[in-house]
Amino acid sequence: MEEKLSSVAKKFTPSPIQELSDLAQRCNAINLAEGFPDFPAPSCIKNAAVSAINSDFNQYRHVQGICDELALIMKRMYGLNVDPLTDIAICCGQTEAFASAIFAIIDRGDEVVLFDPCFETYEACITMAGGIPVYVALDPPQWTLDPDKLMRSFNSRTKAIVLNSPHNPTGKVFSIAELEVIAEACCKWDCLAITDEVYEYITFDNQKHVSLASLPGMQERTIITSSLSKTFSVTGWRIGWAIAPPSAASAIRNIHVKITDSAPAPFQEAALTALRSPAEYFETLRAEYQSKRDFAVELLTSVGFQIQFKPQGSFFLFAELPKNCLLSDVEYVKELIKQAGVVVVPGRGFFHGESSLDQSSKECCSYQSRYIRVAFCKSNATLTAAARKFGELMNATGYPRLHF
Ligand SMILES: Cc1ncc(COP(=O)(O)O)c(C=O)c1O
Predict the structure, then answer these.
(1) Domain 2-40+280-403 is of which CATH architecture?
(2) From atom 16 of ligand 1, which residue's Cα is the shortest distance away?
């Protein structure tokens, strides 16, 4: 059978990080790896989902009310005029919205500019569509975007750029100046932008998320993707959307219908309740995540990390290993599981650029093997338990055993 598999399928093998997940499971480790909350979703939206099931919203369904609500939100938050009848496709999470958007615009050989590091799924979708990912490295420690590097990555084959802000894994919120450079490149090369805004409501220290589509000349060339997943702690509901000019939105809707028909009906109904949440809901979400962020920063600082970049948004802390730590990211995570019973993600899986970097050069010297990603989207009980475990790593000398 194996020889019958497509060449694309053959490329998607389980990552080496799978081995770490297995080890974490065997050690029953506290999970600060996975990007989903371990605390309950808001009761009112759960009740809305239960009520939708009991009211028999259990068949294929398109809930137009979501589009109406999203159009109001886009106007209120970003000043965008969105036609709810033509400009929105409801999908199964941002993941499917993104995949459908890629299939809607990418032909074989089209180049797509991505930032490095980035969320893992983009490259898979682009290559499945026959596109070619072109990476632009964000410069550590602040993950700054170098405008010249960006401009050099565009050419006549560039079809689109992907922007994820607030950013997984770094927690960076792209500045207005950076958004302007991206917009300038898109307009100059007549390219599209696909944004991933799933962390749009999770920003800290008075940082404000600005949608790239709201910059001059951008709405007509931007496909916004986002979802309920992170904002309402319902990653398993699979409700997301793409918002785009009518021709792109229609293409995305057609692809979505061919692949999945529709997003889960009862959760679409419950999305109406979620999207109509009062302003206080979003304020509380932000404040709670900010205090979890501060907790995570303190936690790592207490075991010898020097946090050079405090997340400005999202719910991830991307931390460079302490200078005196001789382990690579993968080795560190393995030891952390074994010695502390806590699991985080080795950073290398988020890096793609200089893809020629082979395993051994990654091991010894590149910065791509010097980061770990800590997900702080966890209950205070989980975070406190993790802090206790980290504390137990400290030697009588005041240094963690792990670093040497
Ligand atoms: C940047 C980013 N985009 C998208 C997703 C997935 O979103 P959804 O659950 O809506 O498919 C994640 C989940 O971790 C993410 O971190």
Answers:
(1) Alpha-Beta Complex (3.90)
(2) 168
